[in-house]
Amino acid sequence: MLERKIRLLIVDDSVFFREMLSKFFVDDKLIEVVGKAGDPYEARDKIIELRPDVLTLDVEMPKMNGIQFLRKLIPQYPVPTVIVSSAPIKAFDALDAGAVDYIKKALIQSPQDMQEFAAELRNKVITASQAKVIQKKPASVVKPQNVSPVISPAAAARNADTVIAMGASTGGTDALQTVLTSLPANCPPIVIVQHMPPVFTKMFADRLNKLCAIEIKEAENGDRLKTGRALLAPGDFQMSLNKDARGYYVKVEQGERVSGHKPSVDYLFHSVAKCAGKNAIGVIMTGMGCDGADGMVAMHDKGAYTIGQDKETCVVYGMPMCAYKKGGCSVQAPLDKISSIICNQL
């Protein structure tokens, strides 16, 4: 239980939107709106004065946009921030600037629209209140030519049937980038679920593809796994691993939410346990909740080597904690050691 209410500062240039959100949280048992700001300069003053636990932040604002504001804010005041924006690409840039989550600013046409939007925002604010904000270093946009550690050709041949499966949520964009940019071009194929809405997954995959030695692409139904390729599950679809006479491939299809998510880490991991068994390596990283924990246990029980990100380096130590407590982790490790552990295991 929370000892006190989460102190929320709403930052948006729309007076109507600020007041509407504020009214929704008036009687909330967990969240208290301690202030409202119409632009980043006013927000800066309110942050210093009110010391909020979480910000909701619009991107398009006068005087300074939300992305510029975050880049200036995070180094001085690492306040967990939920982006509220109608422009996915701008929101994605804001996540890259240090925001911990994003919600699309909905067109409010009825009281029900407002209820649904505010309920989703409420969940994201609660999650953000538990997040650690990590200042990010600018990433190079050049594909690395020499990646360490290295998988020798002999080791690569021995691991011809190996599949690496990764899952993450809040904070996962940074975590995945850290691991994937440290893997060599001849690593075994990788399948990934990162909790993200549609459009975002394509942008994320394309961005990673520019940074990594391996190929990264948003998965399409029937895509084949191959050495040096990582497939990222698309937003609002489920992805599973399958195998036929030609080798591994993925199915990408509409389906019900699993563990509350689509794409779901559990959905992917259970398919990896069934299809790859002991030839799999599982990695579960930062994120709220327990999606992936049961699938990690299933992989571990089938003989897979499983890695959980440790508490100290997680933005939110939720998914790895659940997997560890259920006995699904062969080892827990700091984020910057995961790629080395994968290569050593191979």
Structure, described:
The chain contains 12 helices and 14 strands. It has 346 residues and is an alpha/beta fold. The chain has 2 domains: 124 residues, Rossmann fold; 193 residues, 3-Layer(aba) Sandwich (Rossmann fold), CATH 3.40.50.180. It has a 7-stranded parallel sheet, with helices on both faces. Strand 6, helix 7 and strand 7 form a beta-alpha-beta unit. Helix 3 packs parallel to helix 4 and helix 9 packs parallel to helix 10. The longest helix has 19 residues. The chain is elongated.
Give the low-confidence spans. none
Going by helix content, strand content and strand pairing, the class is alpha/beta
Shape: elongated
Q: Mind describing the biggest β-sheet? A: 7 strands, parallel
- How large a portion of the residues is in β-strands, by DSSP E? 15-25%
The domain count comes to 2
What would CATH call the architecture of the largest domain?
Answer: 3-Layer(aba) Sandwich
The overall average pLDDT, rounded, is 90
Number of strands: 14
CATH topology of the largest domain: Rossmann fold
Q: Order of strands across the biggest sheet?
A: 8-9-7-6-12-13-14
Distance between the termini: 42 Å
**Rg, nearest Å:** 20 Å
CATH class of the largest domain: Alpha Beta
Instruction: Tell me the helix content.
Output: 25-40%
Q: CATH homologous superfamily of the largest domain?
A: Methylesterase CheB, C-terminal domain
